[in-house]
Specification:
Elements lengths: L1 H29 L6 E5 L16 E7 L5 E9 L7 E13 L2 E2 L5 E3 L6 E4 L4 E3 L3 E5 L5 E7 L8 E2 L6 E3 L16 E3 L2 E2 L1 E6 L7 E7 L1 H4 L11 H11 L4 E7 L16 H10 L4 E7 L2 H5 L7 H17 L3 E5 L12 H16 L5 E3 L1 H5 E2 L2 E5 L13 H10 L15
Parallel strand pairs: 16-17, 16-18, 18-19, 19-20
Antiparallel strand pairs: 1-15, 2-10, 2-12, 3-8, 3-9, 3-15, 4-5, 4-6, 4-7, 4-10, 11-14, 12-13, 21-22
Helix pairs in contact: 3-9, 4-6, 6-7
Length: about 425
């Protein structure tokens, strides 16, 4: 009798376990994946200058500065403007100690589809496998890539305002010591994004879409003093869990593609802004190069029409979009009185039309009260077009953080 009872109990347990395990497996199967959030990005451009030479049997060590914490990471490599397939072997991510030197025991292998090698066709982007790796906002990381064969011209971000490195011949991706990385470079090759799984109370991601002023031209090199960098620090200081992704390209324009200055804001909007992981908000500062670069576009209505298209596409995706007023530029090498009159008309529309979800009046803060068509000398990098570090800080402080503040405020994590 005792054996019968034990057998019956065992049978009941097996039935119970099978049911509950099946239920658990089903629950795991339908459990949604946690969303990725972009914490750093570099908009891709056509090869020009030194990027035309390509890379062969060299290792890149690319230095980046993420804007949000996360405990799981992935990287994005792009061959958007390459002219042939490019193969990367031995890809690593690590924490920077100084220059090209990495902190011991932080350099960690990254795989793609479970493999240590990935080949990317022209026009394509590859996402790495998720990796358990702690990313901390404001802490420099290094992505190391070994390129064994001839790459052909490089898809790149031309003005990084950050020193990265190319090694002498050979595969040095796994090394933490800096000795092999003898050639500094001022651009980001192929690396287009870093994403994390963020804290669950992260409220969104801001993409700053713009030209060289968003890209940080005129700021101190390798110090992360671009206005999006300073904005990210302000958000963290206020306990606002949002990422900032810099989609600036030096020389960029709203309407016109350029072989050096990249695809127009309209033509790159989907790739560089709307498709960024976790994007919820956009800050748009574009138009001064449409006016200044030849052939000049002095038609304010045409520039405004381009801004409207960007606004409409952002709103169609459910994003908030904020407009920045165009900075004064009297004294810059492409300044004209007619161009300045166009700039003022565009700024008046930005301020008064109500097309944006909000306006950040960069011009009002950075202009010289004694000559409002010029940058204030305290904010001028010297070329009368780009702000210096103080100017970029003033721009970031012009951004009203109440636009991004959660209700109730998120606790500091």
């Amino acid at each position: 009798m005792k054996k019968v009872l034990i057998g019956a109990a065992a049978l009941i347990w097996v039935i119970w376990a099978a049911f509950h395990l099946d239920t658990r497996e089903e629950a795991e199967a339908v459990k949604p994946e946690k969303p990725w959030m972009g914490v750093w990005t570099a908009s891709q451009q056509e090869p020009s200058g030194e990027a035309l030479e390509g890379v062969e049997n060299r290792t890149l060590r690319l230095i980046i500065h993420p804007h949000l914490d996360g405990k799981k990471v992935r990287i994005r490599l792009s061959n958007q403007f390459g002219r042939q397939p490019v193969t990367f072997r031995d890809i690593y991510i690590g924490k920077v100690e100084e220059g090209a030197a990495l902190l011991p025991r932080t350099n960690t292998r990254v795989t793609f589809g479970g493999k240590e090698t990935v080949t990317i066709e022209p026009g394509m982007t590859a996402h790495s496998d998720p990796l358990r790796f702690k990313v901390e906002a404001g802490e420099d990381l290094a992505v190391s890539l070994y390129v064994p064969g001839e790459s052909g011209p490089v898809s790149w971000h031309r003005l990084a305002k950050q020193r990265s490195y190319i090694s002498g011949p050979g595969n040095h991706a796994a090394e933490t010591e800096p000795g092999a990385f003898t050639q500094p470079i001022q651009a980001w090759y192929w690396l287009t994004g870093v994403d994390v799984i963020p804290h669950p109370r992260t409220t969104g991601g801001i993409v700053t879409l713009g030209d060289s002023i968003t890209d940080g031209a005129g700021s101190t090199h390798s110090t992360n003093h671009r206005y999006p960098d300073v904005l990210s620090v302000r958000l963290r200081q206020e306990g606002i869990r949002m990422s900032v992704m810099n989609a600036g390209i030096s020389g960029n324009k709203i309407w016109r593609d350029d072989p050096v200055y990249g695809p127009s804001a309209l033509n790159r909007l989907e790739r560089d802004v709307l498709s960024q992981p976790g994007v919820t908000d956009v800050i748009l500062l574009e138009g001064i190069n449409d006016i200044g670069h030849t052939p000049h576009d002095y038609d304010a209505e045409h520039i405004i029409a381009g801004l409207k298209r960007i606004i409409d596409q952002a709103h169609e995706r459910g994003l908030n979009i904020y407009g920045g007023t165009l900075l004064p530029y009297k004294g810059a090498n492409y300044y004209t009185e007619e161009g300045n009159a166009t700039r003022k008309k565009v700024n008046e529309w930005i301020r008064t039309a109500g097309a944006f979800d909000g306006v950040f009046d960069f011009e009002r803060i950075l202009r010289d009260p004694a000559d409002p068509d010029r940058l204030h000398p305290a904010y001028d990098s010297g070329d009368h077009l780009h702000p210096n570090d103080a100017g970029y800080r003033a721009m970031a402080e012009t951004v009203n953080l109440d636009r991004f503040r959660p209700d109730p405020p998120a606790e500091i994590y």
